[in-house]
Design goal:
The chain is mainly β. Among the domains are: 301 residues, TonB-dependent receptor, plug domain (Ferric Hydroxamate Uptake Protein, Chain A, domain 1, Beta Complex), CATH 2.170.130.10; 72 residues, no CATH class. It is 8% helix and 44% strand. It has eleven helices and 45 strands. The chain has a 22-stranded antiparallel beta barrel. A hairpin with a 5-residue loop joins strand 13 and strand 14. It is elongated. This is TonB-denpendent receptor.
Length: 976
Amino acid sequence: MGASLVAVTIMSLSGLAHAQSVADVAPQDEAATTSAQSAADIVVTGSRITTSGFTAPTPTTVIGEEQIANNAQPNVFNTIAQLPSLQGSTGAATGTFSTSSGQQGLSSFSLRGLGTIRTLTLLDGQRVVGANVTGVPDISMFPQLLVKRVDVVTGGASASYGSDAVGGVVNFITDTRFEGFKGNILGSITKYGDDETALVQAAYGASAMDGRLHFVVSGEYDHEGGVGAGDFGTDLAGSRDWYRATTLFNTGQTNNGLPQYVYGDYAQPYQYARYGLINNGPLQGIAFDANGTPYNFQYGSNGQPLGNGRVSNCFQGNSFCQGGDLSGAPGSGASLKSSLERINGYTRLGYDFADNNEAYLTVNIAQVKTNNQPSPGYNRSNLTVQCDNAFLPQTIRDQCAAAGITSFDFGSSNAQLPDPQVYTDRKQYRFVGGLKGQFGLGGTDWNYDAYYEHGITISDIRVRDIVLQNRYVAAADAINLNGAVVCRDPVARANGCVPMNIFGNFTPSASALAYVAPHENGPFQHTKLTQDVVSANFSGEPVELWAGPLAVAFGGEYRREFYRVNADPYGAGVSPLSPNDENYPADPLLNSDLGSNWAAGNYKNGRGKYEVYEGFLEINLPLFDSEGAGRANLNAAGRGTHYSTSGTVWAWKVGGTWDTPLDGIRLRAVTSRDVRAPNLSELFAAPTVTTLPNFNDPFRNVAVSTFQNTIGNPNLKPEIARNTELGIVLSRPSWAPGLSLSFDYYNIKLNGVVSSLSAQQIVQFCFEGNQAFCGGFSLDNANQQQNFVNVQPFNLASWKTSGFDIEASYQWQQPLGLPGNFTIRALGTHIRKFIVNAGIAGVDPVDQAGANNGATPDWKWLAVQTYDTGKLTLTVQERWFSDGTFGNQYIVCQSSCPASTGNHPTINYNKMKGAFYMDVGATYKITDQVSIYGKVDNLFDKDPVASPQTNTGLDINPALYDTLGRIYRAGVRFNF
């Protein structure tokens, strides 16, 4: 069959030269190539063997140019992420609720639900500098118009490609020999009039010097408007009406025979209101309207204030009532999708200095900007207000006097304040110089591929309109002094404090805002990442054996990863804050040593690096090749890797394929030892501080505000995985030459997983008597700004997951006598189990398979039907995943419940519906060079189902559910 085995497969399926799309997502064993390519260009993703007739044992799904084009997405990431084997990938619709993560708008893949850091993403088989300290690249920065195909290896490939390939490999293959001029213009908008998108792409390629010099350049601009935040309460962006503030209400009771958690809609936090609520003492239950007029707050659940901070008939465990006045609840105020702007420029210059030998240089410069709103206003539930506050209505002062109190506890969403905004700006500069081709040695032709890559990512994060908490407290505490309203604290006054009215919708003065939430000098993080890679790989057939040639591949790689991050002094802490810094002046009210003065976005300073040295050897041994027995091969590889931080570790794989004598049937199997080294973030993380405003303190059974301090661990070791796959393939049998089917079972065991418990788990396990968790938090400080829970990663956990993949395609030529071809394709993944074991005494393993608030549903399918006449192409696509649960750790009961524990809490309802989405599209060729196209995603405008938590966040799971609704797309493509 020659080196272009998959190209031959595609032609056999279709019977037509133009029908490569037939097998774009059909079951494949090798990477698709064209017969015109030289042997040096043939790369079988999942193996380093580059030789004719080689069949890799690791399953690989191939997405081709036409499938990418038919899906009509502004980012090719969206097309690839739809594959069922990809679970938990991140994009512009994820991470929008976060202020501090720095991953907003970062497009990265996750295979098998193992996380983005365990999927190795390559560009033309080469590593790409990370767009974040986690080390994952941003697909938005790839030269997308030049992508010929994407190979998705659904199995461990560390022995062939190195660290991070535990879940598999996603390899983008570009057209390095493109000639001509082509472009794509796309526009889209949602049914709700938002996320307006404009994409312009163009590429030009030419050759000179009798075809020995090759030049390719491409550029693209993409603007995606995003879906902005709604308002407080339940109002989402546009006319979306599906948000109901669904929550798992915590009764606070664990041993009364009733479930601890109760599922319900319209959760109302009873510790704060839109413009303020007295939440403790004899005046508890008095709120303030937009005009600052006091009124009796309407609690849900027919609740009545008890004067001790609690409300009757409500849920004390997480301080919620059900129903009532939701106008101050911030859940719906987060962006549904970050706005995104990306600019990408790419150039490749190649010179054939000899036949089948090329020297090349590539330059890729890209920038991606995003913006999102994590939540509105400033949620503060623990403010102490003095009864002589200058802005307090006289009626409340009188009630204070009658009750004999001089102060009260107060909570507010502070809707009068500007809404915080997070802006990210990532710039990437990537340079690659390399040699590849063939040479003869010992009577054998050898392929080689050597390159040096230097990548730089500069990432800036700015947060606007975030409150400095101690300044907010000082500005809110206003008094009358000598006929003027001023801040009570003389130290604060001396350092620029400007009083602020917090009782009503009174927009603070410009000077008050500049003091409380300095707009231009808010939280800031500047990060520089560099990656240097030197790699050389060789492949050949040195020996002819009884059943064919022995194929060998070997090579080595050196890699250096480095990062440095600098943050603003109010967040990071500087001792002391410089009195000469006009942007961040010294202020006795602020913590100059530890920082963490912002309500959110307290970035820290940090730096770190590590180096990697590795070498590998891979062989393909033909076992037999006869008409009676069929053809079989054994594929094996080993790789030794030395990390400067953790020493030497070994990876290996052993597998093989058997083309049986049965018509079209192939068997394949592979088992491997795979590794993932800790990344820069895990080893040397600049400490991040996240505010948890409604943290449940089980010791006092109250909700408190606390900081979560996340820190790195330089003593981490590599994770070790054992990956086994068994499969059967039916490929183009004589009785159905248009049919391809495959079934692959997988089993992955991952040990030494770098992970940490949540802040809530740490405190809960201490409360239940496990002293190992009791040294890293403090929750009962009178000043709640001193509350904290430390979260740090360790090699403690282990994961076990297993399941199977099903892929199928079939094509009819001239169906029902109609011109053209009709193709159906389907891919499905079933997760049998996904057991997460924290590796800590007292913490039970949890099976996350089917937990739809995560990324691992029991079943996930993608099906595509295409009718192509050569002039007109019609496409219908279905995406589906199965019903699941909120979490499999829960015990469902209505009464006579067992004791509720941190391992197995009781709950009254634990079902989470799956979803079915249909997309339809069409492409029409006006001429051979120009086509117009249109597409509708989520045709039936399917709403997401609630993914309830125990807090006030936006209760959806954008990693699994479509949160935007129906989208209309249209565009034009040209190729001259």
